[in-house]
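Board notes (copied after class):
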Amino acid sequence: QYVVVQEQAPSGGQWIGNLLIGDLTSSVPYGGEGDLAATTTALSDLLIASYYVDDAQAVVVNETAVTIDGHPGYFMHNELTFSQAGLETTREKLIVVVVDTGRARPGVFWASIPYNRADLNSGMDQVYGSLQVND
């Protein structure tokens, strides 16, 4: 799910807020439940480097082990600040959750909510609170 926050971003295309669910990319190492914290950090770093403007600064607000539908996981909340002429937002909330589903690659929940659309936070919280693992 995503919503367009700014139709024409200065870097090209649209600036969006999103909620994404899927399997962890093979480019991020994962060796099992003991890697949850390191994998979540690595994925967060990869997302920040890949999808945000070059000067994006990230501060970890909260990180903790979690249980999602009876499965071990790890939750990380980063606050991003950045500046780009013509971009309507300068801050964004980034949530990354990695869940050991018992499969070779863990599940991932990724939410990115621009601060100029704080109204999207309640939807993100609702989706996060309803996460389930399909066995």
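Comment from the instructor: The two ends are 23 Å apart (CA to CA). The chain is about 20% helix and 40% strand.
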